[in-house]
Amino acid sequence: MLLKKNIPIGYVFGKVKVELVIILLYSLAIAVIHEWFLEVPISIPLAVPAVLGTVISLLLGFRSNQAYDRWWEARQVWGAIVNDSRTLARQVLNFTGSQYEEDDVHIWRQRMIRRQIAWCYALGQSLRRLNPTIGLEKYLSRKEMEYLTRFNNVPMAMLDQHGKDLRRALEEGYINRYQQMEIDKTLTRLCDAMGKCERIKNTVFPSTYSLYIHFSLLLFIAMLPFGVIDYFGFLEVPLVVAISASFLLIEKMAIHLQDPFENKPTDTPMTAIAGTIEKDLKQLMHDQDLPEDKRQEKYYYIM
Amino acid sequence: MLLKKNIPIGYVFGKVKVELVIILLYSLAIAVIHEWFLEVPISIPLAVPAVLGTVISLLLGFRSNQAYDRWWEARQVWGAIVNDSRTLARQVLNFTGSQYEEDDVHIWRQRMIRRQIAWCYALGQSLRRLNPTIGLEKYLSRKEMEYLTRFNNVPMAMLDQHGKDLRRALEEGYINRYQQMEIDKTLTRLCDAMGKCERIKNTVFPSTYSLYIHFSLLLFIAMLPFGVIDYFGFLEVPLVVAISASFLLIEKMAIHLQDPFENKPTDTPMTAIAGTIEKDLKQLMHDQDLPEDKRQEKYYYIM
Amino acid sequence: MLLKKNIPIGYVFGKVKVELVIILLYSLAIAVIHEWFLEVPISIPLAVPAVLGTVISLLLGFRSNQAYDRWWEARQVWGAIVNDSRTLARQVLNFTGSQYEEDDVHIWRQRMIRRQIAWCYALGQSLRRLNPTIGLEKYLSRKEMEYLTRFNNVPMAMLDQHGKDLRRALEEGYINRYQQMEIDKTLTRLCDAMGKCERIKNTVFPSTYSLYIHFSLLLFIAMLPFGVIDYFGFLEVPLVVAISASFLLIEKMAIHLQDPFENKPTDTPMTAIAGTIEKDLKQLMHDQDLPEDKRQEKYYYIM
Amino acid sequence: MLLKKNIPIGYVFGKVKVELVIILLYSLAIAVIHEWFLEVPISIPLAVPAVLGTVISLLLGFRSNQAYDRWWEARQVWGAIVNDSRTLARQVLNFTGSQYEEDDVHIWRQRMIRRQIAWCYALGQSLRRLNPTIGLEKYLSRKEMEYLTRFNNVPMAMLDQHGKDLRRALEEGYINRYQQMEIDKTLTRLCDAMGKCERIKNTVFPSTYSLYIHFSLLLFIAMLPFGVIDYFGFLEVPLVVAISASFLLIEKMAIHLQDPFENKPTDTPMTAIAGTIEKDLKQLMHDQDLPEDKRQEKYYYIM
Amino acid sequence: MLLKKNIPIGYVFGKVKVELVIILLYSLAIAVIHEWFLEVPISIPLAVPAVLGTVISLLLGFRSNQAYDRWWEARQVWGAIVNDSRTLARQVLNFTGSQYEEDDVHIWRQRMIRRQIAWCYALGQSLRRLNPTIGLEKYLSRKEMEYLTRFNNVPMAMLDQHGKDLRRALEEGYINRYQQMEIDKTLTRLCDAMGKCERIKNTVFPSTYSLYIHFSLLLFIAMLPFGVIDYFGFLEVPLVVAISASFLLIEKMAIHLQDPFENKPTDTPMTAIAGTIEKDLKQLMHDQDLPEDKRQEKYYYIM
After folding, report:
1. In the complex, which subunits touch A with 3 or more CB pairs below 8 angstroms?
2. Which of B120, B238, C302, D187 has the most CB atoms lying inside 10 A of its own CB?
3. How does pLDDT run across A162-172, given as a tens digit for each residue?
4. Is residue A303 part of a domain?
5. pLDDT tens column, E180-208
């Protein structure tokens, strides 16, 4: 699905550009004062920032772990959506008896599978707070499009439409009662996946933790030049900037990872995944109209 | 569901206000004595509090992890309640055959879905030790309200009512035997979610761990001024207060996170989640009477 | 279920009383020798015990995590028992058709639910290595009591009785074939919960790990006075005792948490949980004979 | 199931005997050279091995965690085997209608349950790379024994025999179609448990990790005497041996824990667990021929 | 399945060969300059690299954990594929009634099981970005081979063929409706396993984390010689190389573990596992044509 693409170095450091310039000026000022102007010693033992460094390392470790878990769970949920979309297509295509190869069943199958493709796009767009129905006219009938606009939660309404179509299929005799239950279980799993995405989207990481870590980090960086000025002199400046960059980048990384649906370049590649689902499901339907590779994903770096 | 709201700085530091004032006076007294009165050295090597600092960091890391896990599990359970409420509504609406569009089935569907909405509110209120039936008269009949007051555990009784209604639906022929089993599985998952909330609510974090960590922390803070007084002089006071604030805040944070149903501003936003469920389920029923945004949640900061 | 109760300070420190007295005498002896008798220096650099301290902190962290996981899993399993007991009652009450409101079905329901209550008490007692059948005569017939005494594993035999009663219900036509399967799934989950409790009970934590950690801790404590005697003099004694108490308590805590069914005051509150189940299930049966709060639990502190 | 037995101290230290003697001689040589022969200083600052000590602690923590997880998963899988064996017995005994109490059904039940007992022993023996069919003649017919010898994977073939017997039971009308599916699910879970054991058995821990940790540990031990010789003189020898023993033991412990099916004294007690299953299942069948306590397990210390 | 094989030492160090030569030259240059040419002191306190060392240790621990989890999850998924392949074979062989022992059913069974064997090989090959259909002509008909080449995702198409064959079996009366649903659940699990492999394959580890850790490591190594040159002189060179090798190897190890399907010697042994599945399934079919041990796996070291 995803290819490894290089991340431009500018992009990486761009996130902490402002902070690094300030730290550069700050540590330079200290070095100038220490070397040229001041007589009284201003250095402190390195052990003082080192104690803070240990605490901050542990807290950044904790934070990185939780952020990574959120990001990885988001990726797992979208992996499960791939699996269950394929399962739904397999069930819809193969549960309906081969004797019903006439038009009605064929239309029903097409409608179910196209709606499933649309559901994946709609879920991705609604998680990014975009209009979920944009671009779905390729997969849904005009009537269904109109019906869906009445709902706040469009993907949920589409699962309900799936359920209504299952009932129709049972009443028409396309599927039997056990098959209805089995496909309904697949819908339940899709409903769970949708809810898990919403949970990750809507639950912010405890922000007091973030605040505390950020303040501790600033305290640590402010003390660092005093701890190393005696040994390094002007070489202190690049050293402090380099160490600060490390800590700030790891903090920023955690901040970005923890919100995997925020419409940022480092997002979960939902449109690409939905494109893969579309390609797979259309091939199962023997539909030749495969989607070209999605262009709108190209600005999304893969993290 | 939830929006990021700013946490007032006063709220954050308010929790450790008293402790910080005491630490301020304590470290100030030591600085005054050291600088103005005393001749004999009272400083100790920084390595002594540093050893304690490492141990405490590890223990706070352990504690933060467990507290976060409890909080995140609480959030996951409520996410599962959202999913299973939607699944229940989808099953109730779509299992009942479309030929039964007459009034009886319609009333049955309405009763099931309204009770499910009420169940979410009731569970949230009973986890906060409030009267679980307050405000449920909008969703339940007077007779059912009266019946429920006989029970200690109101949400459990409501699931039992769901079960009774399922039996009635089977006997009336609204649903078939497989569908009864499938909806019953959804009830089982809701019952599990309820029990998980009760487990988190009722199991206190091993309090001897908390005690030990708190005492170690006090010992560490008491030794800190002696470790840095030689290098910092009066600057020791803000340094000690800042480091103490970090450690105390991280401890307080863990204490709040570990009890996510305690009716505090940093609570799991159960009423807001139940409101979302109400909106979704009513739209599925084509009920126009959507709830306005819940006002009582506005004092709950999102953590 | 559980209320936060204060843990008497004597109870907490009582567990490490003997060790602390020995450490007190040991560090006092070293201080006396150092201050009054000896000329040659006996202090060692603090870095030596500090290295050991880091290793021990990491190992205690590992141990605390595993012990906490065992304890929390035990609590989760009993939470699942609560859920599945309620589910069993809901299924037993609501699967049996309302047209069978005559006595036979009523007796069958009562027997199933009362046996489930008894099963919870029996499991708790057998995990504590008490006679599992004590006090069950309130819930079971005399004949069933006699039958059960033939088994080594009484709770397993009771699940088998549940299974036999399900067969009877199917043969009598109280429940249909799907319902038998669905209730059997609930029995399977109860069987799993029972087996998980037995696994936690019967699998000791790798004892060589415990041994190693304990010996390292003693080595660390033995070296500690020599590391701090130079800076603290007689103040070394309370410092060493306080730090040793911290480490010993955290070790003891892990030892207690890791065996959650050992009939100790810090046990998993199985009798209280079984009492909650009894109350809930009896209310579902409209049985007025609710249990009074269990008195025998009062000596069990909640950890 | 398992009782806590003391681990002879000789057994514990026997594993690192050779290493400790070498370290003893090595550190003794350094002490002799330093004290009696050499004039030039050979000590190095303790901070150098201390840095390595921190890295090694973290890596040993990582390794202990993964090894413990493998060991605990092995134990969980065998706990699940206990649960599913009991579930299989309950289903086999109680699904077959009570009206079929004639001989055929009885023989069928006996065959299923005895084969399940045999399966547990066979799985344990094949995981220990012993002949899996040894001792199974007590539970299986001669014909079935012969049939099984044709298979590389005997436990898999026994599950297939279970499946064939289920088909026979359906064709004879002992069980209905739903019951066949439900028992088949139990077989699926047993098949999963078997595969999980094979996975743990056949996947070696990434050996380059082990190599790296071992080499780092040797480097650390080699540098340790130089770091402490200045402060301790000849007392350095027991100190170095004690610290080395701690690190080596924790490494050895992880190596043993990570392979829980290697026919070593610290093995997962599979034969004892199979004995428990045999006793439980025979009591459910009202079979008086209970197994005596397994003697061959007595050399297996419980870790 | 897998045997422990020795990893040639050259292979282990070969991965970091270039880096180590550069570090050797670098540290040698510093030693030469310090010992022979320079008068001014160039050493820095060891505490400066030590602070970085702690941070890097924690980050490498985090990275090793996540990489190990990916690798272990990959192994678990392939373990589940083993289990579900056996389950599918057991169901296909034993659900079809024994009265249908005529040719048609036999051919259907053979086709299903041979396709399942082929599916395992195809999945392994497509995860390694090889042509998935190579070598499958032994298991599949020519017609099916041709059909499969039309699909981008061959294993998905094979599961769809499984589904079509199930429908045919239902229509022919080989299996009943419940059995179709039960085998379909096994297909769903296989579909999930396939999707999980694709997720691990296609999701790169957040590359900014990797970059950050790598840069911090280089900074640490660059500072290390200056930290120890005063104590060791020329002995500094092997020490720096040894410590650098440790850190670089642990980083490389994580990089290899995190991508378990990259066609490298340290890969997940997918072909060997598929060979095991082939052997097991053919024995269940009483097919004598067992595969010889796969030769192409011999260059794959087991990690």
Report:
1. B, E
2. B120
3. 999 999 999 88
4. no
5. 999 999 999 999 999 999 999 988 888 77
